[in-house]
Amino acid sequence: xxxxxxxxxxxxxxxxxxxxxxxxxxxxxxxxxxxxxxxxxxxxxxxxxxxxxxxxxxxxxxxxxxxxxxxxxxxxxxxxxxxxxxxxxxxxxxxxxxxxxxxxxxxxxxxxxxxxxxxxxxxxxxxxxxxxxxxxxxxxxxxxxxxxxxxxxxxxxxxxxxxxxxxxxxxxxxxxxxxxxxxxxxxxxxxxxxxxxxxxxxxxxxxxxxxxxxxxxxxxxxxxxxxxxxxxxxxxxxxxxxxxxxxxxxxxxxxxxxxxxxxxxxxxxxxxxxxxxxx
Amino acid sequence: xxxxxxxxxxxxxxxxxxxxxxxxxxxxxxxxxxxxxxxxxxxxxxxxxxxxxxxxxxxxxxxxxxxxxxxxxxxxxxxxxxxxxxxxxxxxxxxxxxxxxxxxxxxxxxxxxxxxxxxxxxxxxxxxxxxxxxxxxxxxxxxxxxxxxxxxxxxxxxxxxxxxxxxxxxxxxxxxxxxxxxxxxxxxxxxxxxxxxxxxxxxxxxxxxxxxxxxxxxxxxxxxxxxxxxxxxxxxxxxx
Lengths: 279, 240
Ligand SMILES: Nc1ncnc2c1ncn2[C@@H]1O[C@H](COP(=O)(O)OP(=O)(O)OP(=O)(O)O)[C@@H](O)[C@H]1O
Ligand SMILES: [Mg+2]
Prior knowledge:
Mean pLDDT of chain B: 92
Radius of gyration of chain A: 31 Å
Order of helices and strands of chain B: EEEHEEHEHHHEHEHEE
Number of domains of chain B: 1
Radius of gyration of chain B: 17 Å
Structural class of chain A: alpha+beta
CATH superfamily of chain B: P-loop containing nucleotide triphosphate hydrolases
Order of helices and strands of chain A: EHEEEHHHHHHHH
CATH topology of chain B: Rossmann fold
Number of helices of chain B: 7
Strand content of chain B: 25-35%
Low-confidence stretches of chain B: 1-10
CATH architecture of chain B: 3-Layer(aba) Sandwich
Bound molecules: adenosine-5'-triphosphate, magnesium ion
Strand order of the largest sheet of chain A: 2-3-1-4
Number of domains of chain A: 3
Helix content of chain B: 25-40%
Number of strands of chain B: 10
Low-confidence stretches of chain A: 1-24
Largest sheet of chain A: 4 strands, mixed
Mean pLDDT of chain A: 80
CATH class of chain B: Alpha Beta
Distance between the termini of chain A: 89 Å
Helix content of chain A: 40-55%
Oligomer: heterodimer
């Protein structure tokens, strides 16, 4: 038997439609979310008793549907369950007739625009304020945006650190070639040819490296998403590798690779070839 | 091989050095590595530069090969004064005018034998087809016809040195310079190398070889002895 907790925090859903308020039946129907279904082992058609708290008189209900949560980051950390029931049912159950926090109004697909609907509600209904769902989502995800910025800062630090690392590695790698560069110079290969070859190689390595990094990123974020979507039972994507990110990373590493290659190669070809080969 | 053979053996000078000096500016007393050397080398000559360690052999060879610039004096190779070329001009001259063979081969480790031989030709903008044909010819000449796709680590020291010789001949240089070409090789491979140089010279190449190897020096028709940066003996010199 089910005891739904914290019913006061539940959001009532007002269903509009030709049928109006659902007809009285011996078993009132509710919908529950996936999390609750999984935790309580309920499926559609199951019966349960819904009460406002332990020991409170309950009401027998039938599970009419299981809902999947939207990808709302502000709900990730909340471990609560969600039950949807008809407004009159909620009022009867809680014994509070006029304490509704907010309504969600769904518009039919072909209906007038959400904006004009909201405007009309705001003009007609005193004491109400209508917002578009998207605006509400933005407002409630303020915390998420702070976290997002924090993650971005970590990302930038990572990129800067690996860029310096890449720069140093390239300088070292080119310096490993000092003997070869010296030999080429002795044979009459021009400075320009050597610099071009080094830069081309650095550019190639940078691009291939970034693409390999992007592939790794895709794999890792798929793994992270799979794991945390399971933990929080949400369709929210926690890690995303967008084409924009891949393009940025490739361009950055290409620029750095070319600059590092150019600096390292120019430093080498300026030295006398006999010094480079260490005679 | 027809390419390295001169049209005729003549007294035509390939190299002419006049009062060449090279001082190394070292803190304190500068080192006078080469102190006034004059040397004429005719087309088709085979010259060995010998002398005790530190007498200036490598310094002189580097001057003759436009790797280094003399402190004073002039060096003319194939009619061109190379003693005061800019770095870019000297580089270009080394590419097309001189063939180098070094003690430590200096092959590019990531390139195949054929690619190593092609390298100076590619830099000299020789068309691909010609480059490939000449590479095949040269590798055949040094006895490595079947090894063109092998990389240096897959070749013995003697084979690597033969690739280096093929590479040195790539752009048909007027002069072939070698500094201790048998220095890294065992006696048997060294003897093969000596034969190779003799054959090169017989086929027309003008050779100057710096060596401690008595066998190699004996093979040369002219032996120039250096001591303390000057020529002390020049046996077998072509008639002036
Ligand atoms: N870069 C340099 N700076 C200062 N002194 C140098 C330099 N290169 C050579 N020397 C000096 O010049 C002299 C001649 O050197 P070089 O290398 O020409 O001798 P070498 O005859 O080739 O000797 P080895 O037979 O041992 O190779 C030596 O005293 C050497 O110490
Ligand atoms: Mg030497």
